[in-house]
Amino acid sequence: MFLETKGLTKKFGGLTAVNQFDMYVNKGEILGLIGPNGAGKTTLFNLITGVIRLTKGQIIFDGKDITGKKPHQVAGLGIGRTFQLNPLFANFTVLQNVSASFHLHPRSSLLDIYFNTKTYRRNEAYILEQSLEILRLVGLDKVEDEMAKNLPHGYQKMLGIARALAIKPKLLLLDEPIAGMNPDEIEFTMTGIEKTKQRGTTIVVVEHNMRIMDLCDRVVVINFGHKIAEGLPKEVRENKEVIRAYFGDEHVA
Amino acid sequence: MDMIEQPSITDRRKWLKPSILAGLVVIIALMPVIQGSPYILHIFILTFIYIIAAVSLRTITISGQFPLAHGAFMGIGAYVAGMASKWLGWPPWFTIPSAAIVTAGIGMLISYPFSRLRALYYAMGSLFFGIGVIYMVYAGGIWTGGYSGLTGIGSMFGSSKVAYYYFFLGLTMVCLLALHRFEFSRIGINLKAIAQSHLVASSVGINEGWYRILAVSVGCFFAGLAGAGYAHYNTVLSPATFNFMGTLWLVMYVLLGGIESFAGPIIGTSILVLLPEFARDLKVYSPFLSAVLLLIVVFLMPKGLVSLPYLIRAWYTERKKGKKITHVSGN
Questions:
Q1: For burial by CB atoms within 10 Å, which of A75, A223, B308, B331 has the most?
Q2: Domain ranges of chain A
Q3: Which domains does chain B show, CATH number per domain?
Q4: Over the stretch B18-30, which tens digit does the pLDDT of each residue have?
Q5: Which residues, other chains included, contact B102 with Cβ-Cβ below 8 Å and sequence gap of 6+?
Q6: Which H helix or E strand runs over A81?
Q7: Alpha carbon of B295: minimum distance to chain A alpha carbons (Å)
Q8: Class of CATH domain A3-251
Q9: A12 touching B, CB under 8 A?
Q10: By a Cβ cutoff of 8 Å, what residues of chain B touch chain A?
Q11: ipTM of this complex
Q12: Which of A232, A224, A161 minimizes the C-alpha distance to A190?
């Protein structure tokens, strides 16, 4: 198991957002994490990446206990992520957004950076080259000099993914990557996700849009902080609990 | 042939900025020869000192933090250097760098708990720290000179303003180069990334807390340096120089010139320190006039005075375009 959560619990005051959540991700797969609004999907991502502290439980990634680690440490271990509301480095260009995200690989020491040594210049040249390659991969190379804040929504979402790829993640957490996109953009993004998987990245994707299920090897359904179903996309689609969670009792055959 | 010999307009534009800059450098470098009056030199020396402090304040702000204690940090540098000189008899060549290091250290200690605060809370926290520093100076009795100020600080060059002038000119140049490199390297990129979104920055592995502390430490180092230089130049220190008003002046220098540009605080400081000297009858009103000037700038050019040339050019091209359009419609 590549990523495993054991008894993950998060309480916000009286509200239990995530309750005794056990989940695992296999290496190399795309796991879909679906569920209605407010089910606790984003909270789960924030717990794994250390943005918020968990109340109880344990998170194990690649054999290491990462419970309670800070966001930058989690990123350092190889977990990249995107955000649902997709914050960007708004006043950087597209290219700068990606190159600024190359903080970890290759990493120059402060003195190298400050004194502009050969090592630093070599690293920066490499970063530039890699950033352009990532932009080509996600199809943003034509707008590399555009300010990130001026991009259309779909492009901004892709930029979020491009930025997460810059840390060379072993595990990529995508928070609603196709929400609010038009059909062309969805097609494009899904191809991009598929390509990323083929390059050997394990992916967990949170989504409302059921189209994402076409990509997933396995699906976990969450509602009110509980896991209500788990399995192959086909199984989950026919699961009564899932239909009830999405459409209510009367739709259960 | 003609095309080669005649420089195009864009070529001339390219040389405009460097040549203005070079001209300014020559004038500033020859200032003591052109206008040797000690008073004028004194004003320029103060300008140099405050340029270091204002630019170092802006260096902290690029990380998205807005401290309201920079005057106090300048004061820490000044008092550390002054006290080391007076009570320990250390020479200026030693007190100035050590005061800068002490100031950076205090900035680092303070910013550790503060690195968890954001925006307004950070400003408030630092504001109270600054006020606390001044009260510590007041409470210091004979050691800090208390209310009556610290006297008897060793001077660097005796009464020769010219020597001070060149010393501070050189120091300012070195500090500006150092801070420029800091901002326009990957360190500065990381700070700017944090300022735009700390969530995204930490998701790509940038250690937000650490970089914020680094920015404050570096900013405080140069504030301490400026303060220590001031102590050895003035040889007398008064706590009032470094109180909240002192901080506010630095903030005004930065905002007037333009907080988004490296040149901003340099221009802002030059105007606000030099201008009152050229209109000495109005000097009593200088706080009011400065406030009015700042309000005008903030409303008309939110990016500060540095954006003035761009605004004028934009306005000029707009007007040209407008004329053409009326001409066409007139037909």
A1: A75
A2: 3-251
A3: 35-300 (1.10.3470)
A4: 888 888 888 888 8
A5: B76, B77, B80, B224
A6: strand A79-81
A7: 25
A8: alpha beta
A9: no
A10: 181-182, 185-187, 189-190, 192-193, 196-197, 199-208
A11: 0.91
A12: A161
